[in-house]
């Protein structure tokens, strides 16, 4: 039952296909390194003589590139930083706020997390890429899809302001769903 005794870092990463938990074990006496993604062991290295370095792996259905950097701070203290697609987690999440919209809603007692990737207009629902139909309408575009027999539509309308750009609104069964910030 020695599992997780050397747990040194835990991160939550929101991707289009869901929120993923990344855990890292670092045995500073044995040099052991173990990376878990959503509770599943992705990497295990025993007896690493070099205690600093980098472990690279992928996360989620989109196979997003991730890396954990291990740096010595002083003496036997170490710092662990997570990178997603080559950016620090903080920078990645800031960029993600600009490139995606996320909504959480409950339909018939089930929670759904819907993500719009603005650059591709791909729509994800609870980890699955959705089949969508896009159409041009008078004031912008509408992207239609179905979740649990409920008709959904993401309306894209210009804000009229250059800095704000396009405003995306999710409408389910003719009611507007508020966006969430993850």
Structural notes for this entry:
By secondary structure, the protein is mainly beta. It has 2 domains: 7-85, Lipocalin; 97-180, Lipocalin. The chain contains 1 helix and 18 strands. A hairpin with a 2-residue loop joins β11 and β12 (128-129). It starts with 6 loop residues before the first strand and ends with a strand.
List the helices and strands and how they pair.
Elements: E1 7-15, E2 18-26, E3 33-37, E4 40-45, E5 53-59, E6 64-74, E7 77-84, E8 87-88, H1 89-99, E9 100-107, E10 110-117, E11 122-125, E12 128-129, E13 133-137, E14 140-147, E15 150-158, E16 166-172, E17 175-177, E18 179-180
Antiparallel strand pairs: 1-2, 2-3, 3-4, 5-6, 6-7, 7-8, 9-10, 9-18, 10-11, 11-12, 13-14, 14-15, 15-16, 16-17
GO cellular component, one term: cytoplasm
Family: Belongs to the FAIM1 family.
Pfam families: FAIM1
* Low-pLDDT residue spans: none
What is the N-to-C succession of helices and strands? EEEEEEEEHEEEEEEEEEE
How many beta-strand elements? Answer: 18
Q: Can you give the helix content as a percent range?
A: under 10%
CATH topology of the largest domain: Lipocalin
**Strand content range:** over 45%
Strand order of the largest sheet: 12-11-10-9-18
Question: In CATH's first tier, which class of the largest domain applies?
Answer: Mainly Beta
Structural class: mainly beta
Number of domains: 2
Q: How much is the average pLDDT?
A: 92
The number of distinct helices, counting runs of at least 4 residues, comes to 1
Largest sheet, described in full?
5 strands, antiparallel
Shape: elongated
Gap between N and C termini: 34 Å
The CATH architecture of the largest domain comes to Beta Barrel
The radius of gyration computed from the alpha-carbon positions, rounded to a whole number of angstroms, is 20 Å
GO cellular component, one term: cytoplasm
Subcellular location: Cytoplasm
Protein name: Fas apoptotic inhibitory molecule 1
Family: Belongs to the FAIM1 family.
């Amino acid at each position: 039952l020695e599992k997780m005794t050397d747990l040194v870092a835990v991160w939550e990463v929101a991707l289009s296909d869901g929120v993923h938990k990344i855990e890292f074990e670092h045995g500073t006496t044995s040099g052991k390194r173990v990376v878990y993604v959503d509770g599943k062991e992705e990497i295990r290295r025993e007896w690493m003589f070099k205690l600093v370095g980098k472990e690279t792996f992928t996360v989620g259905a989109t196979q997003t590139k991730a890396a954990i950097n291990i740096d010595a701070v002083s003496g036997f203290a170490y710092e662990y930083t997570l990178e997603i697609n080559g950016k620090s987690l903080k920078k990645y999440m800031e960029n993600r706020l600009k490139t995606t919209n996320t909504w959480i809603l409950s339909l018939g007692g089930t929670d759904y997390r819907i993500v719009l990737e603005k650059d591709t207009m791909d729509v994800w629902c609870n980890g699955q890429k959705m089949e969508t139909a896009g159409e041009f309408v008078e004031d912008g575009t509408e992207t239609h899809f179905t979740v649990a027999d409920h008709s959904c539509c993401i309306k894209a309308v210009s804000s009229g302001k250059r800095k704000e750009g396009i405003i995306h609104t999710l409408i389910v069964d003719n009611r507007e769903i508020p966006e969430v910030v993850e």
